[in-house]
What does this fold into?
Amino acid sequence: MAHNPLETRWQAVQARIRAAEANSGRTAGSVRLLAVGKRQPLASIEFLYQLGQRAFGENYLQEAEARMAALANREIEWHFIGAVQTNKTRQIARQFDWVQGVDRLRVAERLSTQRGEEHPTPLNVCLQVNISGEDSKAGVAPAALPELALTVAALPNLRLRGLMAIPAPAARGEDARAAFDAMAGLFSALRSMGLELDCLSMGMSADLESAIAAGSTMVRVGTDLFGPRPPTSVPHGTAKIAP
It folds into this structure.
């Protein structure tokens, strides 16, 4: 009997990750898969959960809230990905387990305060780094990263877990690997300063092998997992809060 195409793709992505770990001399199972389901149907999220996927990434707050309500009885680890607008921090702080996209102290402070209002566990945070120096992309500049990281790590109600980056779309091959190596260097430097970081979130469908070779511990995969995105299904009036 043929597998569901989504199951076939999920198994293929998992196989790519395991092969990349082996080819890079990494420990088997040391790289986690974050399934990014932007604009994908709820049924696909639930199907992957039944296969064993537990970590899901969301870019749109309103779409994520609907999914969280529908899947409230599932043990899902929800990650918010991308730039965080200050007027959305309260909902994000209260509803997500992770935020991968903090690049300003003001946002971190609001997340810390609002997480503490009613949530008993810290919010896991990755700082987004603008590793390619793009004017249009969110992310802290590498030179400003150490100061921001030390300050965020000291905030209550947050747990600084690591770094996240999205290299320039034009970065391919050696250019992408150079960006990933630079991120790994920043990650190592922060750890040498005494920060207890354990997450280096980088690598997507097209470049996860290069990211894993450079030291990624989490890859964010959408297209190769779910297939092409359907036409926009974000409810009317939803604010897009990720680039």
Q: What stands out?
A: The first strand starts at residue 32 and ends at 36. The beta strands are 32-36, 55-58, 77-81, 98-102, 123-129, 158-165, 199-201, 218-221. Residues 104 and 140 are 7 Å apart (CA to CA). The chain is about 40% helix and 15% strand.
